[in-house]
């Protein structure tokens, strides 16, 4: 983005509750926002407000299950508060409604397609069915097209209607079951609904054949290719993987069994070995995969099951708030970045829940809302679902030098800022400047007023046209075009807009500056 690009003005973001745009980025402002939310919650559910207040006074004493239950209870109230705060209640309600509109897909998939159709008609029987003929009969009964991905929701709604009187509709429900078995079990059926979710069942895992491939020939030479017609061209530098959409993300949220309720959320806490009956301590408490990989779960212990429950129930903002409790830098994780959570998923014999896809899609859906960046940015600093640290701490006066602005560096910088410290970050690479109205930093390195971001598209550009900005370390230079590097600008602004953060490019630690020189400049660490 050019340095002189015009943006919104602070007055263009009329926050509710008498709050100002500046309150979103200051410690005192976070306190005012928290006070408004506390009043809001008490007016909506006083006993719940008391539970939250009690948990904040003694967060360490709160058991994990109780903490999860509290977060899930407060989450919908936080969503309503944020929608009102940013004046986007209409847009948020529309997004929530889309969740509920798609809900029949997942109920019919689980209860009808998988349990009745696929179990009632096995693959060998389904292969004898005339799928297109069955679909024509069903379309006549439903009165609308049922073909392709776009017809899956209509199919689910029709089955839901017919099941309300399953005796009178027994014949058409059997037609639907046979069609569903054909669509799920056969190659032609899967091709007819390519990209859909309704008839896509989890695969049984063969760890020696995790990637389904088939033999082919290229110019007379034997080769292997992915099974089916899955081809992703990688010409040039355009983004080749847009990730899943809302429908696909919700499919994963409903596939998750929300096992935090039983304390079995191994995706978060690891897949544990059984403890010896004699009490002997285990050298390694975690199980290992068939490849010898330790299944320790998410390194951040992100509350995955909890955010999936809120997502499936139609609370996208609350789901993002849960993610941000343990993983505020979610823009730099998720799809194409990490999958330790998937490896430790409770589903070990079938496809695991695609947690990274689901996580990234939640963020994208929130960022796509008006003021979505500002909403996400706020949740990285003030988050009432974070029982242990809902507010950024007051300035400590301590100064820390963070060397390198790769994923470890920018994540460390974020947490140190929330702990009240002043951060100077350096990187050996040249850091390209951003527009002062965007970053709050002039070309001379001075602080300047910055503007709220209504539309996240101002932070995005086609990857084939994007100039490397220097920020992000391995995330900038070491990741292919399967990952959207526009997220790096999002991460950078989470830091650069904060008044106790300074970023310097072209400074090599051990060359331009060494440890002795850093302490001579007054750094505490």
Quick recap:
About 45% of the residues lie in helices and about 5% in strands. With about 525 residues, the protein is mainly alpha-helical.
Task: Provide key terms for this protein.
single chain; 525 residues; mainly alpha; three-stranded parallel β-sheet; two-stranded antiparallel sheet; 21 helices; 5 strands; 44% helix; globular
Largest sheet: 3 strands, parallel
Q: Helicity, in percent?
A: 40-55%
Let me know the number of strands. 5
Anisotropy-based shape: globular
Distance between the termini: 34 Å
CA radius of gyration is 26 Å
How would you spell out the order of helices and strands? HHHHHHHHHEEHHHHHHHEHEHHHEH
Side by side, the strands of the main sheet go 3-4-5
Classify the beta-strand content into a percent band: 5-15%
Number of helical regions: 21
Mean pLDDT: 95
Q: Output the structural class.
A: mainly alpha
Uncertain runs: none
Description:
With 525 residues, the protein is mostly helical. 44% of the residues lie in helices and 5% in strands. Strand 1 and strand 2 form a beta hairpin. Helix 4 packs across helix 7 and helix 4 packs across helix 8. The model has no long low-confidence stretch (mean pLDDT 95).
Please give the structural blueprint.
Elements: H1 27-44, H2 46-57, H3 64-85, H4 89-120, H5 123-126, H6 131-142, H7 152-163, H8 170-185, H9 187-192, E1 213-218, E2 221-226, H10 246-255, H11 266-269, H12 304-312, H13 316-326, H14 340-343, H15 355-367, H16 372-379, E3 399-403, H17 407-418, E4 422-427, H18 436-439, H19 474-477, H20 486-496, E5 501-505, H21 515-520
Parallel strand pairs: 3-4, 4-5
Antiparallel strand pairs: 1-2
Helix pairs in contact: 1-2, 1-3, 2-3, 3-4, 3-12, 3-13, 4-7, 4-8, 4-10, 6-8, 7-8, 10-12, 10-15, 12-13, 13-15, 17-20
């Amino acid at each position: 983005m050019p340095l002189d690009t015009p943006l919104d003005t602070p007055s263009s973001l009329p926050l509710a509750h008498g709050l100002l745009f500046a309150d979103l980025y200051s410690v005192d402002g976070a306190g005012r926002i928290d006070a408004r939310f506390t009043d809001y919650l008490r007016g909506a559910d006083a006993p719940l407000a008391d539970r939250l207040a009690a948990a904040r006074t003694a967060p360490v004493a709160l058991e994990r299950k109780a903490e999860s239950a509290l977060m899930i209870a407060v989450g919908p109230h936080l969503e309503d508060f944020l929608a009102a705060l940013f004046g986007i209640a209409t847009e948020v309600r529309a997004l929530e409604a889309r969740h509920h509109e798609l809900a029949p897909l997942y109920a019919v998939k689980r209860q009808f397609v998988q349990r009745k159709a696929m179990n009632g008609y096995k693959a060998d029987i389904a292969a004898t069915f005339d799928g297109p003929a069955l679909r024509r009969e069903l379309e006549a009964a439903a009165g609308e097209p049922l073909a392709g991905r776009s017809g899956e929701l209509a199919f689910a709604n029709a089955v839901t209607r017919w099941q309300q009187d399953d005796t009178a509709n027994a014949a058409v429900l059997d037609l639907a079951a046979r069609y569903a078995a054909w669509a799920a079990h056969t190659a032609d059926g899967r091709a007819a609904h390519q990209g859909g979710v309704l008839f896509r069942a989890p695969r049984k895992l063969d760890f020696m054949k995790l990637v389904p491939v088939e033999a082919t020939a290229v110019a007379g030479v034997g080769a292997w290719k992915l099974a089916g017609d899955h081809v992703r061209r990688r010409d040039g530098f355009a983004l080749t993987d847009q990730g899943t959409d809302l429908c696909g993300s919700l499919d994963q949220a409903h596939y998750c069994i929300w096992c935090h309720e039983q304390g079995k959320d191994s995706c978060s806490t690891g897949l544990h070995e059984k403890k010896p009956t004699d009490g002997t301590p285990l050298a390694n408490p975690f199980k290992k995969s068939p490849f010898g990989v330790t299944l320790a779960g998410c390194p951040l212990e992100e509350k995955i099951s909890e955010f999936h429950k809120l997502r499936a129930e139609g609370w996208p903002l609350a789901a993002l708030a849960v993610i941000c409790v343990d993983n505020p830098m979610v823009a730099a994780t998720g799809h194409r970045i990490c999958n330790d959570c998937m490896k430790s998923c409770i589903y070990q014999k079938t496809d695991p829940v695609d947690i990274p896809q689901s996580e990234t899609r939640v963020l994208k859906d929130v960022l796509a809302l008006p003021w979505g960046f500002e909403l996400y940015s706020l949740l990285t600093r003030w988050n009432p679902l974070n029982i242990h640290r809902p507010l950024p701490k007051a300035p400590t006066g301590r100064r820390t030098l963070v060397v390198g602005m790769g994923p470890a560096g920018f994540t460390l910088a974020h947490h140190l800022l929330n702990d009240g410290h002043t951060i100077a970050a350096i990187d050996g690479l040249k850091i390209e400047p951003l527009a002062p109205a965007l970053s709050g930093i002039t070309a001379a390195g001075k602080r300047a007023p910055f503007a709220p971001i209504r539309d996240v598209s101002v932070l995005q550009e086609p990857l084939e046209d994007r100039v490397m900005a220097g920020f992000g370390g391995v995330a900038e230079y070491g990741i292919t075009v399967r990952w959207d590097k526009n997220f790096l600008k999002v991460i950078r602004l989470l830091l650069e807009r904060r008044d106790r953060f300074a970023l310097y490019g072209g400074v090599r630690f051990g060359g331009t500056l060494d440890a002795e020189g850093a302490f001579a400049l007054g750094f505490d660490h």
